[in-house]
Design brief:
mainly alpha; globular
């Protein structure tokens, strides 16, 4: 129980930084969608989806591998510095190769006129990849507050620079151009457009790296080749797993432009609408991410113990993840008529994406929770198999659904592809886990909560009134019904055990 409370605390801290950070970044979406046409916002979404893939490749599973070896090592500092040497070297090589082949890469990404965008994001993702190792070290040391503080610093600087470049600089240029002409004019000024978003991101990433210097300096940087060989042996399936996973998560934004190459503006607009509406579903993503940050160190720490208590803790973690994930799903759906105002009315046609993507993310979170069976038994190869299967399913469904629906609503094909793919691999992982690392998950209880959430969701959709106050009052009562059920059947027992 103490371990589960520690997991809850760390999830709350990581969640605080994730929720606040994502929410603040979320607030930039209205700025982007009002300043830039849907097609330009589509470029931003497309490139950030591709950089997410690049980030996974440049980390190549070293975060998890570091946890795996440091948790059972007599010299975790050597595990840490070996990881730093490895990821730092590959990040530098990546930057050099990208700059050498910048124009061919820009052509391949369907933005031949904007190689500078690619260069800025490439350098940013390389620095991010390196920074992820000291962030992993903070998690290993249970320095969740330090972790959260630096993450929030990154968000704050990024938002501040976005506001400065996109709003303040155009105003200053009209009144006192001499104050900013030394950097603003050479970059093209206001005409540089979305490029300022990428510059802001690069600068904020640099600030993060400076903030991590205390965890990079003042230690002997040792490199153990044999240790690295072991770490890479453990991590390479996780690399395939990660690449397939992030490709799956960003499949729609990546694939849509290639499926409608003859209509690039319409395709980018679909990507923009799809991405903007996914920002509303981001609450589920934030919850899943916060849980993931805390859960990985938790399972490896628990694995060092003996007895059945650790297995019960794993089962409880799964149950409460589902419980709170369903609560988030209902709450977002109930208040979607309010939340939709975070994006411009021109994007509201894509609101139908929100419930499908939240359900998909919930399935993905359960899949991640189930992944402990192959991580604890050193069968990470199975994680690779499952992620590759998810990627194949996601790609296949996208290639099928998106063109079938066509312009302008083809993005719904990507949403349903995500849900079906995550649901299928979630079920398969559960079946395999029962064989290799059986756990007595409370399936009946979790299915009961899912059914209850479904009934309350439908009831809330029917609870319409001419007066919004009545509608939302009824929906709040329905949320309290769900919370009361959780208290009655689970939380009350947990409090008593304390």
């Amino acid at each position: 129980m103490a371990g589960l409370k520690s997991l809850a605390k760390d999830t709350a801290v990581y969640g605080l930084s994730s929720i606040i950070g994502r929410f603040l970044n979320w607030c930039l979406v209205p700025l982007y969608v009002y300043l830039f046409p849907t097609a330009e916002y589509g470029i931003v979404s497309n490139l950030y989806s591709l950089t997410a893939v690049a980030l996974v490749i440049l980390n190549y599973g070293m975060e998890t591998s570091f946890f795996r070896y440091a948790s059972s090592s007599d010299d975790p500092e050597k595990d840490y510095t070996t990881s730093l040497w490895s990821v730092g070297t590959t990040s530098v090589i990546f930057i050099i190769l990208l700059l050498v082949f910048l124009h061919p890469v820009s052509n391949a990404l369907l933005i031949p006129k904007h190689p500078l965008y690619v260069a800025l994001l490439g350098i940013t993702v390389a620095v991010d990849a390196f920074s992820n190792i000291p962030f992993a070290y903070l998690r290993y040391k249970n320095k969740s507050w330090r972790f959260a503080g630096i993450k929030l610093l990154n968000v704050g600087v990024n938002i501040g620079l976005n506001l400065f470049f996109l709003l303040a600089c155009p105003a200053i240029e009209k009144s006192h151009p001499e104050l900013i002409s030394w950097f603003y004019t050479p970059m093209g000024g206001d005409a540089f457009g979305i490029g300022w978003i990428f510059i802001a991101n690069l600068l904020s990433t640099g600030v993060v790296l400076l903030s991590l210097l205390p965890f990079l300096t003042g230690r002997r940087w040792r490199f153990d080749r044999s240790l690295l060989s072991k770490m890479l042996g453990y991590a390479w399936p996780l690399l395939i797993l990660g690449v397939a996973g992030v490709l799956s998560q960003n499949m729609g934004q990546i694939v849509i432009p290639y499926l409608f190459k003859s209509q690039p503006e319409a395709a980018r607009s679909m990507v923009g609408i799809y991405s903007a509406n996914m920002k509303i579903a981001i609450v589920m993503v934030m919850f899943t991410q916060a849980f993931r940050y805390a859960y990985e160190p938790f399972i490896f720490a628990k694995a060092r113990g003996a007895g059945e208590d650790k297995k019960q803790a794993y089962c409880d973690a799964m149950k409460y993840f589902v419980i709170f994930g369903l609560l988030i799903f209902i709450a977002v759906e109930y208040f979607l008529p309010i939340l939709k105002h975070f994006i411009a009315p021109a994007y509201w046609a894509g609101l139908q994406v929100v419930p499908v993507m939240m359900a998909a993310e919930l399935c993905f979170g359960v899949f991640f929770n189930l992944s402990l069976w192959y991580k604890l038994t050193d069968r990470t190869i199975w994680g690779m198999y499952l992620s590759v299967l998810c990627f194949v399913l996601m790609l296949g469904f996208n290639l099928w659904f998106v063109p079938a629906i066509g312009i302008p609503n083809g993005y719904m094909g990507s949403a349903w592809a995500a849900f079906l793919a995550y649901f299928i691999v979630m079920v398969i992982s559960w079946i395999l886990g029962r064989h290799y690392y059986p756990l007595d998950y409370e399936l009946g209880r979790m299915l009961g909560y899912t059914l209850l959430a479904g009934v309350l969701w439908v009831a809330g959709a029917w609870a319409l009134s001419a007066h919004p106050a009545v509608t939302y009052s009824v929906r709040v009562v329905l949320l309290l019904v769900y919370c009361a059920a959780v208290w009655r059947f689970d939380l009350k027992k947990m409090v008593r055990r304390r």
